[in-house]
Design brief:
The protein is α+β, with helices and mostly antiparallel strands and 610 residues long. It has 22 helices and 16 strands.
Amino acid sequence: VVLGTMFIAFGSRSLRAAGLSLIFPGGGFLYAADPLLFLLTVAILLVAIVLWWGISAHWAIPLVSVLSAVGSGLMANGPRPFVSRHTVWPWAIPVVYLLAAAGIAWAVYHFEARYRRKLARVPELNAFLAGITSGQVDKATIDPTEFDSELLRWVYEMALQPLDQFKGFDWGEQIHGPTCVRYQLNFLGIALALYTVNFVPNARQSVEAAMANLIDKQTDLRVWRYWRTLNTIGNFDRNPDPIVRDNIMISAYLTDQINCFEAATGSHKFDEPGSLTFVWKDGRTFAYDHGTIAAAVRRNFESNPLGLFPCEPGWVFTACNAFGAQALKGHETLHGSDHWEHVEPHWRRGITEEMLTPDGNFPHIRSKLVGLSFDTGEVPGGEYYLQGTGSFVDTAPDLAVRGAALALRGVDAKVAGLADTIVDGVLPLEFEPKFERNTFIKTAVPEWTRLVGAARGVGRNDVAQAALRGMERSCATGKQWPARPLQAGVQTMGIHLFVRWATPNGTAALSVGGYQPPTGPILSGATWPDVLVTKARSTDDTSLDLIVEPGGDSPVTANLHFEALHPGQHYRLVGERTSWSVDADANGRAHIGFDLDDRQQLRLEPVTTP
């Protein structure tokens, strides 16, 4: 602006035109009597603003100014299509300054007014927070339904196909949103970890293989090759390594996914050096493992003065940095590292001083370079009180309590009102399906998912379960893989599943508690795709409750291998229509085989003889 003003005040006709384009992009064309080029420049400026966010082209807006300055400067003394040579419109000078002032005034007013509205709410919100009593909401232990079986079956098919195949996934642009395959892999993996600890802690073989495959698929070049383009445009860095710099949306998300895998299964598969190797087009390899990726996340946090680090060059997302905190907290729990201990003060300063707004909300996105934050359309309203799959419970419990209180304000009364409308265990609501961003799939699943989460947040599991039945009634397709059992995109399905299956334990419990070995009998046989095990839990450390069904449409022979039994103990496997008896051998093992033609609820229990 200073340089442009000097050009206007002391320069020639050409410099004056160039200076006006520095004041307001394209303003020099208006001075040079070409309003069409001025309007075209404004249109290009709008595209540059989109590219600034869309592909981290931080240079796009300045480039439009510079190019329009050069172009208008050359045109000021050149031929014009509609006016004579050397024609200029001096009145354009004050108009261009007014346009620039109006643009700045609008931006200042928009941001300042939003800030002041939030600030004005502080006394009311503080009074509300002072009057609440925070307490732990008990989460119910529930049994999987037949629809859970269909969902689990679908996830297995998605996860256990060959590593280089992605049949059934949503493919599209890989920078933002639901068509990013890395998010689809991540959310399905987290959902399976929660299914493991909540439904099949005593039968982990099939689900462990599925989770491991979803992690391994992250190294497929088609999943991460976008990063070299984004890194080149935003950082002027052609290094394709997807872990070493910025890119929290792979490094932290992948670390957190491995944390969940390890906490759910106890497997150290991805602690082996080079167990996650990314191979670039020219053969270059970037070898990582659980520990080295976590270390890279820590380095990125520590090297960014903002306290948080970018998902994309120059752009910091609160959600991604919540995953980054979970990644380091979970790794510290599992491996005793000091990553979170060292990063937590740095991260907390970034979250509370750089991101937190006066009314307790966090903006979804903020520019690391200029500090601006705006609604990108990715989340409702562009802000939220809580973030991460653990809602800050594991990484910032104080923010979790406050955020939950604000987010759930008034929800208990609304949920109680819904409880009165439940008919035969089903919530008879209807949500209007809306288009997902990028996939163009119309779905109501996100609204149902939010309702389930809200009901559980206020301790109304009855409403949550009725909402699930209502969603199944209105959103189920009756289809099998590679189609979806719900009318929704894969990412939406993944988010729904890790909300659906996050009871009684969510990801925060995995992050804080780490791996908890199962107690009681273990089912080691009966694996997918022959048999689908949807429940395997022991409530008393001596018996085992099971739900098993054929993996396909045809009857199968179910070979159930049991471990961790009392040696020499006589056991009985009781079904709905029959029962079997077996003695544990000296190693505490036993085997029972039978024909399985439909879904069976079974219980293995020791038999006490007189």
